[in-house]
Each structure stands twice: as C-alpha cells, then as structure tokens.
Amino acid sequence: MTANDHLDCNRPELVVIPCGSRKLDRPAPAADMYVGSYHRACRKGAEALRPDRLLILSARHGLLDLDDVIEPYDTPHGAVGSVTARLLREQATLRGIMGLDPVVALGGARHVGLVRAIWPHARTPLAGTRGMGEQMARLAAMRKALESHLP
Known about the structure:
Elements (H helix, E strand, L loop, with lengths): L13 E5 L9 E2 H4 L3 H12 L4 E6 L3 E3 L4 E2 L14 H11 L7 E3 L3 H10 L13 H17 L3
Parallel strand pairs: 1-3, 1-6
Antiparallel strand pairs: 2-5, 3-4
Helix pairs in contact: 2-5, 3-4
C-alpha cells in the first residue's frame, strides 16, 4: 500500500499507532505521554484517517485509549517484559474490538506484526518502507492526500 491508497483505508473502525521511546518524565494520559516525532507523525496520520477509534500500542501496557493515564517506562517492543500477542488478544477481547474492520496499523515491523496477530486483515500503509525517515515521509504524503479530500 502506498500513501496514495488512502481511499482504501478511509474511515477505518480502528487505527493502532505505536508508542514511542521519548516520553514525559511524569504520569500523563497516553495522548500526551509520547513526545517523539515518529509517534506524533503516526498520530497525525491516524487522525487524518478519521477513525472511529484510535489506540496506542504500548510496549509495556498493550492497547491504550488516549485518555488512559500511565507512568513513564523504558520497555521497547520485543524486550523482556514487553507485551505479547496473547496479551493483546486478551485486551482486544475484553474491549470487544476483535471483530472491527477495517483496521489500520501505522508503525514499523514489530508494531505491525503485533497488530496483525490480532487483526490479520489490518491494512498497513507504511509497508514496504525502508526506515523511519521513509515512513515519516509516507505519513506526511498520506495526511496531505487525505486532507485534500475532506468534505
């Protein structure tokens, strides 16, 4: 999928974006906790899709609503103590969101792999990119294309 395939994932029921390594140094809502440029770019891209629901996939906490208050942490995806697909499946089941479609996953390979373990049909607009810089460029292009089609 490329940034111009925006119509294929317009108005998803759910967009899942990654957390970020740069965080505030105090407890805060998840919407404010992650302050890095990559997370912010994913968030802006997700918001441009105008999803019914937007969740953050935290490496420590799993699926977070934007208003969930959390403590800062230092656990990257794939590290000891990080969330697993099994935990995410349990969280999605408890939230009643297993059957959502379309689902869009914005993020790198580890993030997308976890999301696809829950929603194998998830659309991945950043697939095929070769790193964070290219992903951020695609997010910006996707956002621009989506915003130009707003009613």
